[in-house]
Amino acid sequence: MSTPRPAATIALGVDNGWADKQTTGPRKGDRFTDGSLVANTKSAEKAARQAEKHRTRNVALRSRMRTAVRRVATAVTGGNKEAAVASYKDAVPVIDSLVSKQIIHRNKGARHKSRLAARIRAMQ
Description:
mainly alpha
């Protein structure tokens, strides 16, 4: 444990060599020195690689779901019931696939489908 820095030293601005000792950040000799989180073991490095792959795939899938939901919402606001029903039928499998892959919670998927169906039913 390091000794605390004396208050007089801080107030006077005197540097006793404390500033050049870096206590945080990547260690020298690690694989990544760009400031990103560094894994300590081979298995942690592999897990980090897999997590990044999964994250990019999940981002794409969530974007696909949001686009499908947005298409239904635009058809509803446009007043075209046939287009709204058709886009709803396209959106439901997309939502269900994200639920089955556990990318979104099942209640969130059910909430999306229910609200979209209610908006379609409310159309004249």
